[in-house]
Hints:
Layout: E1 3-7, H1 12-24, E2 27-32, H2 42-45, E3 48-51, H3 57-63, E4 74-77, H4 85-88, H5 94-114, E5 120-125, H6 155-174, E6 178-183, E7 186-187, H7 200-210, E8 215-219, E9 225-226, E10 229-230, H8 231-242, E11 251-253, E12 259-260, H9 261-269, E13 277-281, H10 306-312, H11 320-330
Parallel strand pairs: 1-2, 1-4, 2-3, 4-5, 5-6, 6-11, 7-10, 8-13
Antiparallel strand pairs: 9-12
Bound molecules: nicotinamide-adenine-dinucleotide (NAD).
Amino acid sequence: MKKALVLGxxxxxxxxxxxxxxxxxxxVRVVDIKNNHDFWNNDDICDEYICGDLRDxxxxxxxxxxxxxxxxxxxxxxxxxxxxxxxxxxGENDANVMHNSALINLNVVFEASKxxxxxxxxxxxxxxxxxxxxxxxxxxxxxxxxxxxxEPDSEYxxxxxxxxxxxxxxxxxxxxxxxxARFHNIFGPMGTWTGGKEKAPAAMCRKVAECINGEIxxxxxxxxxxxxxxxxxxxxxxxxxxxxxxxxxxxNIGSEEMVTINQLAEMTISFTDKKIKINNLExxxxxxxxxxxxxxxxxGRNSDNRLYKEKMGWEVSIPLVEGMRKTFKWI
Length: 331
Ligand code: NAD
């Protein structure tokens, strides 16, 4: 029986991934600092759920080998201190984000290499792309080769860039078999939708679902652009990338269906029969109802999937509206 380790499997992408691997017949171990997955029973997503802190090197050394002491066939490193714009762009969490995620990655890559893990996947982020290429909402550049000279617009992005390089350096110096992908806004059911760490698609669904006064607040002028990838496509893209021999990345995993944030809001409103007006918070109104400035991030961002398509011969296909409808219903 093949064995997989999902670090951060108590989270959104990791939970979906662990469940899929288990359904494929893998023996699956999840490690997460949370006691339980937020929305699933632990037994539904894995064979063994270990609650532990991956910043602790002893814990990482313990969990990196399987119960029969053989190396895992597939290891997925998804654990990170992260959240949506309200978490990573305010500046208040910068030190924790960098310190926590860097420690996790330093421990994991070292122990994976020492224990001859067969292959390890690392989840980087589109947030590592330079701000100067994402000023034009209609024409952002997120081609993989545009990463340097580096200028991410958040410390979260800088940490991702550092850790990408860390995984690639362990490949060069110690032959660790790595796969590095840059996720672009993954969304779907079973993800954080409230509490400050939620991202735009989930926040939009929540605002529309809760709206009783005919108005929702949308950060900025609403003309900033993004693309969003539904979780099922993300998993398929990850596994295809992980299970081919020749290409270690970094490569984008995202959607090329770029929309403005107001279009995302209008799409969400269209799932209801409510009459809802969009109140864009900009200029004077840039302070939200709790008195905080609204963090915006780059002006435009879209996945560039040419490299993925060239190397994998496959492309993501689930339309945004389909994924958003499912997510809205769940929230
Ligand atoms: P998530 O926050 O739902 O999952 C991350 C998990 O890591 C959480 O369950 C958290 O408890 C766990 N974790 C954090 N610190 C830990 C620690 N010290 N020890 C053990 N576990 C710890 O996030 P997600 O959306 O599932 O993202 C997974 C990965 O993909 C992350 O690395 C994230 O940076 C990356 N990513 C995600 C997106 C996205 O749109 N969701 C986009 C780009 C990159």
